[in-house]
Design brief:
154 residues, 82% helix
Length: 154
């Protein structure tokens, strides 16, 4: 492994930590908002902030550094089986999970702000679990993607 490969691997691992920290802090802030009626709007604002600062940029950085790393190492991004499976899981994360998390956060935040303005607690509804469900799905995809990258099964 050359020095360039090692540097790209370091960048990729750093980006992965950035993404995972964002995923964790967004979900934890959202859960805090669901449990605390008084600080609900602040917790949802915090979750939205971390989504924009950590979660989405971290996910994009993982993709970019991964493409550069695997291309530099010499893998074909379109014909290597395990890498193709990894790319599909990444695309599901980036284009399904993250947008749905964002939509759910926005709905919860607007509902909490409306409730605060009206002077009451935000009403619970079926949309409350949407960011958690898709955040959990994105969380479960992380070990699957890691296993594909580490073990390169096919």
């Amino acid at each position: 492994m050359t020095d360039t490969d090692k540097f790209l691997l370091l960048l990729h691992i750093t980006a992965a930590f950035w993404y995972v920290i964002g995923l964790a802090v967004v979900q934890l802030s959202y859960i805090r908002g669901l449990q605390d009626d008084q600080g609900q709007a602040e917790a949802f604002n915090e979750a939205s902030h971390y989504q924009g600062v950590l979660l989405v940029p971290g996910a994009i950085a993982v993709g970019f550094t991964g493409v550069f790393l695997w291309a530099n190492v010499g893998y074909n991004l379109l014909t290597t089986g395990w890498l193709l499976a990894l790319e599909v899981l990444y695309i599901v994360t980036l284009f399904v999970c993250l947008p749905v998390i964002g939509i759910g956060l926005r709905r919860a935040r607007v509902g909490a702000l409306k409730a605060r303005r009206a002077g009451s607690a935000a009403p619970g509804n079926e949309a409350d679990s949407v960011p958690l469900v898709f955040g959990s799905l994105a969380t479960l995809l992380v070990p699957a993607m890691t296993a594909l990258a580490v073990f390169q099964p096919f």
